Amino acid sequence: MTVNELLQLSLYLGILLACVKPLGIYMARVYSGSTTWLERILGPVERLLYRLCGIDKSVEMTWRQYSLAVLSFSLLSFLTVYAFQRTQGWLPLNPQSLSAVSPDSSFNTAVSFTTNTNWQGYGGETTMSYLTQMAALTVQNFASAAAGMAVLMALIRGFTRHTTETIGNFWVDLLRGTLYVLVPLSLVLAVALVSQGVVQTFDSYHEVALLQPTTDAEGKAVTTQTIAVGPVASQVAIKQLGTNGGGFFNVNSAHPLENPTPLSNLLQVLSILLIPAALCFTFGEMVGDRRQGWAVLAAMMLIFVPLLVVTTIAEQTGNSRLAQLGVEQAASDRQAGGNMEGKEARFGIVNSTLWAVATTAASNGSVNSMHDSFTPLGGLVPMWLMQLGEVIFGGVGSGLYGMLMFAIVAVFLSGLMVGRTPEYLGKKIGAFEMKMASLAILFPCAMVLVGTAVAVVAPSGRETIFNPGPHGFSEVLYAVSSASNNNGSAFAGLGANTPFYNALLGLAMLVGRFWVMLPVLAIAGSLAAKKNVPAGPGTLPTHTPLFVVLLVAVVIVVGALSFFPALALGPIVEHLLMTAAN
Amino acid sequence: MIAQLRTAALVLLALTILTGGVYPLIVTTIAQLVFPTQATGSLIQHRERVTGSELIGQPFSQPEYFWGRLSATAPFPYNAAASSGSNLGPLHPLLKDAVEARLAALEAGGAARAAVPVDLVTASGSGLDPHISPAAAEFQVPRVAAARKMTTEAVFALVRQSTEGRQFGILGEPRVNVLRLNLALDQHLVN
Predict the structure, then answer these.
(1) Which of B44, B83, B183 best tests the A interface by mutation, with the highest count of A CBs <10 A?
(2) Does residue B11 sit in the same domain as residue B86?
(3) Cβ contacts (< 8 Å) between B92 and chain A: which residues?
(4) Which of A484, A450, A491 is nearest to A470 (CA)?
(5) What are A553-572's pLDDT values in tens digits?
(6) Predicted model pTM
(7) Least CA distance to A70: which residue of chain B?
(8) B88 lies in the same domain as B50
(9) Is the minimum CB–CB distance between B165 and chain A shorter than 8 Å?
(10) What ipTM was estimated for this complex?
């Protein structure tokens, strides 16, 4: 790596870590119902919302009621997003007169945005009207993120409360998270992005004359360029902060009007990990021992940083096939060099790899370069990060509750080793918690492997594969991994906007969301009902480096054992092919 | 269950108004008041008319213009109404074909087939990349100078004028805005 690459990566990690504590404390106050400095402005709005929606904020829910609230909200959200897409041709704010989206694509996108996956089977600027982008997609960017954080809070209350039936009120958690955390951050970020050149307008697309006319695929003269615009900044801000990732344009944040400068890139890639990282601190703060939060964050960093370095080196090394043609790929002060296929000149290598690793570590899924064109090893890392279950930062809320499932497994395993009853944060971990944690971890794994197997066997799954050979297999594996773990990023060569993939990936997204969320809520309910056990001499402390290493090991062993054979058939074979040709 | 669904519907409606209506309208208002140029698409006014966006590349293939990145948009390159990358994997035969076609075009313009900057022969992620690296611009100076009957020094000077360093000296990569550079070349002709 070059000096500047190290500098840019260190700057990124430094700013991220500096934000963890202040934002973490703030979110702890929001979710424990304390007043915050935004209360003066937003307090009246909050009370108005409760009154209009008929919510009594003092009413508490059991885990079953909480689950039912999440499910009914998700169901209605799904139906609404579906309806907007099917009727957009008749609705206002559609300057390009885009017609209704097909039923299978609408189903897929509706599932995608309500499960916080934000897989894009469609090209935004050619498919979605401004109204659909704002009133359907942007709303779910907020709501699905706030729902993820709400479920995390329910789980944390399961640890902090004892001998009670209730774990909070979903509606209060949902609305407070949206109002006090997501909306203010998005407002600030959106305006900052506009200052860099991200568009925010309701104008129709601009038609400009080309300086040098060209010809299209059929040889017809082309003298003008139609520039797609729209209310982009407002959606991009929450797409990053809410770990959603569904972009306004087809190429997401590689598009110069969605991510125009290195600064807009830094702000966006910071926003991807900002809330998931800060929630670790919130967790520590709320369970009354900040070291617990730092330990989880340290475990995430221990996996994140080495994988970031691997991808950066792989991409900077470049494509050996191009080197044979006389192409210069070495980095210098005049060019970024490396594997530039699918990457933007303003971002070069390091900002593309940082984004690729951050967006797949978190379940964000936005891209600023085309992952399909990455080198085999450079593409393996994002794929594996998703397969680890989106727990290295992961989605807002969902990443940390997923990681806490692994923590439960880790204390259970260490309990087995020393022959004592496992405990975590003052709660005994029993058979029920272990069963639920295993379900939450194993269901998405199974969905990835079974889904990929089905897709590569079925003719309709194979026929839209774009790249030949092992890379084609990687495209399918990547897509199913992404959907099953609610990430949403893609090896975009795969033609996924077909009834087959829309259905398969839609199913995978539902499994990845609710088969994790419901076991987590069940654990929250079960833990809340238990008594607190004071730590004794036989208790494994869970804030120590020993536990951090144990947690990392559990995550990696599950991820490696489940997916090594599949990865061997895709990126690993491809890497061997690429190097063998030399 | 019915009560839950009723609350869910009301909350969804409230959130739709708040985050799908009020929030984007506030952002649009601030954006249009404070950063009107950026919010509308950073359009370039040139001789009384709009000749493009500073942030959206255009296709160039004639020898007297600097060429940008390859673009994989359909049905013609740099179609800003349908952004797209090539999505070609590193071993895809079409990737090699695309690189060799660009190498051949550069060679036809008089360039040697050695040490060609990689960003000049590869497609960008968006298909709309407005920039190339300084190396890729400098590589094309002899061709452009010959086609325009200018001295290489004069063309080099224009390239240097259009080169942006890293933002704040650290962020991103040094780069040259191809449309800006070509407009400057045409302007040079007029003066």
Answers:
(1) B83
(2) no
(3) 467-468, 471
(4) A491
(5) 999 999 888 999 999 999 99
(6) 0.96
(7) B8
(8) yes
(9) no
(10) 0.96
